[in-house]
Amino acid sequence: MLDEESQEIWKCRLKGRFKHLDLKTTNPIAVGDRVEMEVEAGWDDRATITGIRPRENFIARRSVHKTGHTHVLAANLDQAVLVVTLTFPKTSLGFIDRFLVTTESFRIPTLIVFNKQDLLGEEWKEVRDELVDIYSSIGYPCILTDAISGRGMDELHARLKGKKSLLSGHSGVGKSTLMNNLYPGLNLKTQEVSTYANKGVHTTTFAEMYFCGEDTYIIDSPGIKELGLAGIGPEEIS
């Protein structure tokens, strides 16, 4: 657990069972939750979590392991940042739209980052421009980035500054590389995309929140292969 005031890391365990809004979740506590704790006797870095404060918001997906349950990706967010690539690997429009439906349902502002611009030929650049026009016209700001040349890094840094953001997307879209470019001290592990399957390899295995200075927090989440909508009925989608 990260203490937002002191930036100290605490090793914590749960006391009892916790529920949120009668949700059936696979994880009672999510990254970004604000908790109450008691320091364990004889330790200066270990504590027991005794309660979870009400969430301002959260983002969840349908659990891929437990039928009828949801998995909370993160809580108490200022914004979500969806990193997409049009090639190597390709992010489908269906995935983008499902992510936006999810963040809209939880009232979380969303920024779309079109990464790996250095890999796009002229044909793909035309597709990119069409998508940027579409998503921008309905209220989603878009940034074009390339971690190799540094394109878009200053704009992305400004968008993240002073906020708690969830960084999400498929494996291999370059989330960790972007983080290392923006905040070199993190030294996050990265891997190449598989040339055989044109798919990314998981380098982030669990969601983790990083303090990046200037009241800026980034939650780096594992790459999402599939995004099942959780708690959203057909009548809620227009």
Which short descriptors sum up this protein?
three-stranded mixed beta sheet, about 240 residues, six-stranded mixed beta sheet, about 25% strand, alpha/beta, single chain, 2 domains, 11 strands, Rossmann fold, about 20% helix, 4 helices
Describe it.
With 238 residues, the protein is α/β, with parallel strands linked by helices. It has 2 domains: 1-54, no CATH class; 56-236, P-loop containing nucleotide triphosphate hydrolases (Rossmann fold). It is built from 4 helices and 11 strands, in the order ββββββαβαβαβαββ. The strands form 3 sheets. Strands 8-7-6-9-11-10 form a 6-stranded mixed β-sheet, sandwiched between helices. The longest helix is centred in the middle third of the chain and has 16 residues, at 122-137. 26% of the residues are buried.
